[in-house]
Specification:
Largest interface: A-B, 27 and 25 residues
Structural class of chain B: mainly beta
Largest sheet of chain B: 7 strands, mixed
Number of strands of chain B: 11
Helix content of chain A: under 10%
Oligomer: heterodimer
Largest sheet of chain A: 6 strands, mixed
Shape of chain A: globular
Order of helices and strands of chain A: EEEEEEEEE
Radius of gyration of chain A: 13 Å
Number of strands of chain A: 9
Distance between the termini of chain A: 35 Å
Chain lengths: 111, 122
């Protein structure tokens, strides 16, 4: 199964907003509202930031929001902070008999 | 507090076998889908396998089908990954993860272990 498509890198200045896209197909992103987003700092385990397209787990800042249109999901981070600099991965449930699929990851740089 | 602690990683020769374990605590293990996710050095995340609460459903990424087996022991609050016929491309940090919500059908991974490194090399 193919990975979901994410931009390799995005950047923004403190206080700005950025959006990371995640493009799949009707068999994954477009077919289900089961898209999740993860933040990973170097040497650390991933952290769940968004689940089911737009839901935030307890403790995750409301600066993080998710949405979906067709086969593309998006993660928006508003009011960028230095601590947001990390790798971000999207994932989705998929209709194939596999455990699910990740995007290739996006490196966020806070300038 | 939810804790997931992986063990069993190490150096193994190509063609060899390894069994990873994940000890869970702080939540009702038997109520959660569990997954193994790996990350090759400098690469992205790859979902390797997952297993339903009662073990009745298991899914594998194509590249490990027929070589890896995921299992769980709810009485011991433990998750396992038996890895056979290992290849160099299986070299990665392997993470154990649970869904964020019990009986979740969306497979979001809310809790993660610290990972265990598997190196396949001669």
């Amino acid at each position: 199964q193919s990975a979901l498509t994410q931009p390799a890198s995005v950047s923004g200045s403190p206080g700005q907003s950025i959006t990371i896209s995640c493009t799949g197909t009707s068999s994954d992103v477009g077919g289900y509202n089961y898209v999740s987003w993860y933040q990973q700092h170097p040497g650390k385990a991933p952290k769940l930031m968004i689940y089911e397209v737009s839901n935030r787990p307890s403790g995750v800042s409301n600066r993080f929001s998710g949405s979906k249109s067709g086969n593309t999901a998006s993660l928006t981070i508003s009011g960028l902070q230095a601590e947001d600099e990390a790798d971000y991965y999207c994932s989705s449930y998929t209709s194939s008999s596999t455990p699910g699929v990740f995007g290739g990851g996006t490196k966020l740089t806070v300038l | 507090e939810v804790q997931l602690v992986e063990s069993g990683g190490g150096l193994v020769q190509p063609g060899g076998s390894l069994r990873l374990s994940c000890a869970a605590s702080g939540f009702t293990f038997s109520s959660y889908w569990m997954s193994w996710v790996r990350q090759a050095p400098g690469k992205g995340l790859e979902w390797v396998a997952n297993i339903k609460q009662d073990g009745s459903e298991k899914y594998y990424v194509d590249s490990v089908k027929g070589r890896f087996t995921i299992s769980r022991d709810n009485a011991k609050n433990s998750l396992y990954l038996q890895m056979n016929s290992l290849r160099a491309e299986d070299t990665a940090v392997y993470y154990c993860a649970s869904t964020y919500r019990s009986y979740s059908s969306s497979w979001e991974m809310g809790y993660w272990g610290q990972g265990t490194l598997v190196t396949v090399s001669s």
